[in-house]
Amino acid sequence: MAAKAISGTRPRAASGSLRRDEVFWAYVFVGPWIIGLVLFILGPMLFSLILSFFTYTLGRDYSFAGLDNWIRAFTKDELFWPSVGKTVLYAAIVVPCSVIGALLTAILLNQGLRFMTFYRTVFFMPHLVPIIAAVYVWVWLLNGSYGMVNEILFQTGYYLTGKGWVGPNYFGDPFWALPALMLIALWGAIGGNMMVIFLAGLQGIPQELYEAASIDGAGALRRFWNVTLPMISPTMFFNLVLASVGAFQTFEAAFVGTAGGPAYATWLYGLHIYEHSFKYFDMGYGSTLAWIMFIGLSAFTYAQFRASRDLVYYAGEGR
Amino acid sequence: MARQGLSRRQMLKGTALVLGSLSGSAILAACGGGAPAPTPAPAKPAEPAKPAEAPKPAAPAATTAPAAPAAAPAATTAPAAAAKPTEAPAAAAKPAAGTQVVTVRDHDWLQGTPGQPNDWYDAFIANWEKQNPTIKVEREWFPRNEMHAKQLALAATGQIGDTVRINVAPVVSELQLKKVVHDLDSLWKDDKEWTDNDQKQFWPGNIRTYTRDGKVWGLPVVGHPGAIQYFVNKTMIEKKGLKMPPADGKWTFEEFVALAKGLTESAQGRTTVYGVIMPFGNVTINEGMVGFLRAFKGDLFDADGKKCLLNTPEAVAALKMFAQPFEDGSAVPWAADIDAQKPGLFQGQKAGIIIQTSAAAAAWPGQIEKLPEKFEMEVMPPPIGPLGKFGTQVSSDGKGVSATTKNPAQAWAVLSRLFTSRDHGINRFKNGLGSPGSRNDVWDSDEFRSFAPKLQNIAKHVVLPPSPPMDAWHHPANGRFAEHEPILLNEWVKVTLGQLDPEKYAQDVGKQIQDIMDKPPV
C-alpha cells in the first residue's frame, strides 16, 4: 500500500497484460467510437464491396453479377479511363504546386516582420471560404465573355498596345477548363491548412541548428537545404499524403462548377462515381468504381510511405 | 485477490471480434433491406390499394365547397371528390362528427418560402384544407437536386409518402419501372366529375408522356410547349432596323439565323452583344434540341422510346441549323454558369434573343420594368420548319400517387384537386414559381390572359385549339433518361466550338444513346 502510494502507479498482473476491469473500461470508452466506425464507415464500406459484385439499381432487386462490374469499368466504360487520366493529371499538377506553394508561403510568413499575424490571417482566408462559394465566384470571375479576369486582361492590353487582349472562355473551352479548376484548388490550398502545418513545422526547428550552420559558414540557401528541409520532411510528407488523397478525391469543384464539361474536360473520377451512383442510381457499378479508387489510392499511399523511408528524417530515430 | 489478466494480443483479438460481428450484423441488416413497415417495399409491392374501397364522399355543399371524403376513409367507395375546379369555395367545410382526418404525405421540391409570411403555397394549401377538412397535407419537400434520389431511397426503404413528385416528365418511366408510382386510371375510374371535366383539359401530348403500358402514371403539374419560346428584345431589333419575328410564327429558321446575326455586335475583337442565347444550359439540352429536331421532321427518340433517331437526314439538317448561330458567332458560347448568366445577359441587353421555356414570362416583364435601361420584350413562337407546324415537345414536371399509399383516395384528391388543378396552374405561375399548368383552361382563362400578356402569342398560335396538338416528350422506355443528357450536351459543346461536325455528332451520339436505350430497364 505504501509502495503504491509512493509510486502512484498500480501494480500490473504481468508485464504486457491488462486487468479485466481495465479492459472493461477501455471498451466502455472506445465503445461509442467503435459503434460509429462500424455503423457509419466500416459497415457501409464492406457493404459497398459486396454490392460491387451485384447489379443493383436503387429501387430494384439485387442480382449477382460476379466480376461484371469490375470488367465493365476497365473494358467497357468509355469514360472510365479518360476520367482516370484527367484525375491523375489534375493531381500531378495540383499536389506538387500546392505543397511547394504552401511551403513557400509558410516560409514567407515565418519571417519576423511587422504585422505578420495580419498577413497570416489574410493568407488563410481563402481556406475559410466554402469550396462551393469559391467555385461560384471563380466561375464568375473567369467567365469568358463578361468575367472580371478577362475584362482586366482586355483593358490591360488596350492600355498597353491600343488593342484589347481577348482572354479564353476558361470554363467553356475544353483546353482551359481543367487548368481553371486547378487554379481554384491552388487558390484555396496554398494558404490553407498545409501552410499552417508547415508554419508549425518551421517553428519547431531548433534555432541552435541554424546557429550552428551559420557558424559553419552556411548561407541562407544552404541552411534551407541542409537544415530546414530535413527537419520539416515529416511535415512535408504528411502534407503530401493528405494533398494526394484530396486531389484524387476532388469532386465538388467539378460537380458545381462545370458538371464535368465542357466536352468532358473536367469529368474527374469522383464525378464519374457520383454520376453512376446518384444520378443513374447504378449502385453496384458505383460501388465498384469507388473500390477501384480506394484500392488505387491505398496502393499509391503505400508507395509514398515506402518511398518516405529514405526521404523523410525523423529526429530521434536511430539511423 | 487473484488477478486475471488479459494480454494485449487477447484484447486486440477481442476488439477485432467485436468489430467483425458488428460489421457483419450491419451488412446483414443492410442486405435484408430493413423493415418495410409501415408500407411494403416498392420492389415487391402489395396489390395496389383500390380506390373503390375508399369512402364515398358526401355530396359537395351547395355553396360549392369542394367537399372531401366526409366519411371515414375505410368505409368509403370512391375517390375523394371535389367541387368543380372553376368553382370558388364559399365557406370552409367542417368534418362530420367522428370523421377521421387523413394525413397525406406529399413529396415535392422546395418551392417558395414555406413557413414564411406571405408564402403562396402555405396559403393555397391551407385554404384547400379548409375546404377539405378530412384531408391534411403534410409537406415533405426537398431541395430539387436531391428530391428524386430521396424519393427513390424512401421508396426502396418503404417510407415513401402518398404523393410523389415526378422531377421531369420522362422520369415517370423510371418511377413506374421501380414501382414507385400507382397507375391513375384505377384511381380516376369512379371519379366521373374529374373525368368529365378536368381530364379533358389536359394536353393530350402531355398525358401521353405519362402513359406507359396503356396506363397513366402521373399528371403534369406545370406545362409548356417546350423550350421553344423566343423571348426577343423588341427595342433592340427596331433600333437596328431589323424585322421583328411575326406573332403567328410564320417565319423561317433562315430568318431567325439572320436576325441573330444582325443583332450581334463586336468591338475590338470581342463580341459585345450576342444575337441569341440558344436553348441549352449547364447540364440540359434535350428540350431545346428537340424543338429544332422536330421542326425539321426529325426527333431524338421514337414514340416507343426504343430507338434513337438522331442519325437521320432530317435530324442532321436540324442539327446544322442548331449549330449555325455558333458558327456565325452570334450565339452566347456554352459556359459552366450559362444558366445563371441568362437573365443577366438578356435583361442587360447583351443578348437580343433568348430561346427558353415559358417560366420566365411571369417574372421578367416586371424585372425589366425596373431596369435603368428599359426595353420592350416580346415572346414569340418559333419559326416553322419543314414540318409545317411548330416543333413542340410538351414539357412538364408531374406528380403521381405512390404505389404503396394506404390512402389512395385522399392521395388522388390531393393530386387531382390541389396540385394539378386549374387554380394551381394559374396561381403558381402568377406567383413566379414556374410555368403555368398544362391545361387548356389555364392557358385560355381570363386570369391568365390578364397577368401573362407576354405569353398570349404562344397561347394563341401554339397551345390552344385550333392549333395542331402539341407532341409528347419521348424518352427511353427503359427508364434511362438521365443517362443520355450528359452525352447529348458534352458532345454538342464540341460542335459549338467547331471541333465536331454536326453529321459526325449525329452518328457518334446517336450510337451512344442507342446503346443506352438497348440496356435493360433501370
Notable features of this structure?
heterodimer, A: 319 residues, mainly alpha, two-stranded antiparallel ribbon, 3 strands, 2% strand, flat, disordered N terminus, B: 522 residues, alpha+beta, five-stranded mixed beta sheet, three-stranded antiparallel beta sheet, 13 strands, globular
Task: Summarize it.
The complex is a heterodimer of chains A (319) and B (522). With 319 residues, chain A is mainly alpha-helical.
- Unreliable stretches of chain B (pLDDT < 50, length at least 5) are 31-91
Summarize the main sheet of chain A: 2 strands, antiparallel
What gap, in angstroms, lies between the N and C termini of chain A? 44 Å
The helix-strand sequence of chain A is: HEHEEHHHHHHHHHHHH
Largest interface: A-B, 60 and 57 residues
| Nearest-integer average pLDDT of chain A | 90
Regions with little confidence, pLDDT below 50 for 5+ residues of chain A: 1-8
Radius of gyration of chain A: 26 Å
Counting DSSP H or I runs of 4 or more residues, the number of helices of chain B is 20
| Shape estimate of chain B | globular
DSSP strand tally of chain B: 13
SS content category of chain A: mainly alpha
| Approximate shape of chain A | flat
The percent range for helix content of chain B is 25-40%
Largest sheet of chain B: 5 strands, mixed
Strand order of the largest sheet of chain A: 2-3
Beta strands of chain A, count: 3
Give the proportion of residues in helices of chain A.
over 70%
Structure description:
The complex is a heterodimer of chains A (319) and B (522). Chain A has 14 helices and three strands. With 319 residues, chain A is mostly helical. Chain A has a two-stranded antiparallel ribbon with strand order 2-3. In chain A, helix 8 (174-189) crosses helix 12. Chain A is flat, with a radius of gyration of 26 Å. The relative contact order of chain A is 0.12. Chain B is an alpha+beta fold. Chain B contains 20 helices and 13 strands. Chain B has helices spanning 8-31, 120-131, 144-156, 172-177, 185-188, 192-196, 204-209, 234-239, 253-263, 286-295, 313-327, 338-347, 360-369, 408-419, 422-430, 440-443, 446-451, 456-463, 481-496, 502-517, and strands at 5-7, 102-109, 135-142, 163-166, 211-212, 215-216, 219-220, 229-233, 265-267, 270-277, 351-356, 377-380, 398-401. In chain B, the strands form four sheets. Chain B has a five-stranded mixed beta sheet. At the A-B interface, strand 1, helix 2, helix 6 and helix 13 of A face strand 1, helix 1, helix 3, strand 10 and helix 19 of B.
